Amino acid sequence: MNRSIKSLYLALVAGFGVLILMLGYWQVIAAGGLDERADNPYQFEKQRLVDRGRIISADKVVLAESIAYRQKGNRYYRRYYPQGALAAQVVGYATPQQGSTGLEQQYNQYLAGSYGAGAILDKLRAAQKEGADIRLTLDTRVQKTAEALIAGSRGAVVAIDPSTGQVLALASSPAFDLNQVASDFATIRKQSGAPLVNRGTQGRYPPGSTFKVVTATAALNSGKWNPSSTFDDPGKYVVDGQTIRNDGGSKFGVHNFTDALTFSINTTFAQVGKRLGPSRLGGEMTKFGFGRPVEIDLPSDEVAVSGRYRDGKLLSNTQRDEDAARIAIGQENLLVTPLQMAMVAGAVANGGRMQRPYLVKRVITKDGVVVKQQNPETLDSVASAYVSSEVSRMMQNVVREGTGTKAGLSGLSVAGKTGTAETGDPNRNQAWFIGFAPADNPKVAVAVVIEDTSGTGGQVAAPIAGEVMRTALSATPVQGEPQP
Predict the structure, then answer these.
(1) Is 202 helix (H, G, I), strand (E, B) or coil?
(2) Number of domains forming the structure of the chain
(3) How far apart are CA 459 and CA 436, in angstroms?
(4) Does 429 reside within a domain?
(5) Domain at 234, CATH number
(6) What does the H/E/C string look like for 99-125?
(7) Percent of residues in the chain assigned helix, strand, coil, to nearest 5
(8) Residue 247 Cα to chain centre, angstroms
(9) What is the overall mean pLDDT for the chain?
(10) Which of 146, 235, 239, 255 is placed for a possible disulfide with 171 were both Cys, Cβ 3.0 to 4.6 Å?
(11) Given CA atoms 170, 175, 177, 180 in this order, what sign does their dihedral have?
(12) How far apart are CA 404 and CA 415, in angstroms?
């Protein structure tokens, strides 16, 4: 009898032990997987109990907040986006039904209050929690200007502070109302133009002649050329049996390297690319960040990699069999994001130092305790300060008297480069502009792309870039508390 009781006792202890282990597994280790299920009623209930932190712009505008309401005597919260569609793809959404995107996803642990010593214990109970606020680098004044200028088109604008990497604007068009996600997500998904896609970080486009900034930097770095180096353009350049021509069949005759960038002379840049070869030109691409993910604080699946693609596969920057002449003029399967090209302009503006772009300055609790702080970080050196200043002067000439005059700002020096990439339709283009201002003390670097337009980069994208830079330079720091 005693032996039977003892066996029963051991069996009960073992059973309880297994139960505790299973409970711990499902509640702590596997909780993340269960939480992601849209049909999980516990997840819905848990999210309603959380007073998520606010998302606040650099100029103190609230972009996301939680609003309390009562139901059957209980206090719950729902997510509300006071600015509607402003910076929709960047802010992202957080709903039990559709999951989360953008900053709402990337900073969820802070916004949901699931950080610090109590995070594991919180997984074991459905208790009300208060999240921390995230303070952005994004300035709604610059963001609104960018969004207004590309409204009605498909395209993107990225503006960054080249010395710090802080993202001032990240606009993508078309956009959508974040408040509609919870109530009518199906309608958003049916809208034309893929509004859920962040074209600034996910859109991949042929860069056209904006890539010549990378080629010019590589050329000056090599020591084989300088801005005054001379070339003779007969109107065409034959390489490997194929002919490269200038836009409109133009012939420029004898000219220097600065003229080549100013008037975007394809034949000259193709010659330079051919002489540089895939190794040296590809090495410069690597320093500029092509071929690797951009380290920005957004979900990794919302940031595309810029580089050369074949059949959807990313290729090495230094592959020997590649046509360096066409790469040098922004062709040969090159696909880039606007964010990447803003970083290219920013690196030249910042004396050759490429900064890591970031969207969140700090994470701060409701009672003012900073739990996370982001600071400027240099990713790579693309050129010396001297070479960068020479490239900058060449880019200033583009805006002063070349293809980018419409990006000019009264009383300020602007550096830039236009691009007009083909689409397959001879009457439609992808229009580009990248640049920075003021050229002698850069405070903002931009990249603009407009899809499927009959205009050129100089006609369509350059004026947008100019207005965005003007807004950024005139935006003064805002003091005080965020607006309600």
Answers:
(1) coil
(2) 1
(3) 18
(4) yes
(5) 3.40.710.10
(6) EECHHHHHCHHHHCCCCCCCHHHHHCC
(7) 40, 25, 35
(8) 30
(9) 91
(10) 146
(11) negative
(12) 9
Residue 92: band (very low, low, confident or very high) from pLDDT cuts 50, 70, 90: very high
**Burial status of residue 316 (CB atoms within 10 A of its CB: 0-12, 13-18, 19 or more):** middle
- Domain residues for the domain of 229 are 140-176+190-358+376-474
What is the pLDDT, as a whole number, of residue 74? Answer: 86
DSSP H helices, 200-265, are 212-222, 257-262
> From start to end of 317-428, where are the E strands?
334-335, 353-355, 360-364, 370-373, 378-381, 415-422
Label residue 409 exposed, middle or buried (CB < 10 Å: 0-12, 13-18, 19+): middle
Give the tens place of pLDDT for each residue, 432-471: 999 999 999 999 999 999 999 999 999 999 999 999 999 9
Q: How far apart are CA 444 and CA 421, in angstroms?
A: 24
Q: Does 97 fall in a domain?
A: no
Does 276 fall in a domain?
yes
- How far is Cα 308 from Cα 302, in angstroms, rounded to an integer? 19
Strand, coil or helix: 25: helix
Distance CA 113, CA 71 (A): 22
Q: Can you give the pLDDT at residue 22?
A: 61
Of 2-11, 124-133, 211-220, 222-231, the poorest mean pLDDT is in 2-11
User: What is the pLDDT, as a whole number, of residue 259?
Assistant: 98
Amino acid sitting at position 108: N
Residue 251: both structure tokens together: 């012939």
**Residue 322 pLDDT greater than 70, yes or no:** yes
The verdict on residue 296 lying in a domain is yes
What does the alpha-carbon distance between residue 303 and residue 200 come to, in Å, rounded to a whole number? 9
Nearest to 384 by CA among 209, 218, 163, 164: 218
- The predicted pLDDT at position 117 comes to 53
DSSP β-ladder status, 50-51 and 129-130? parallel
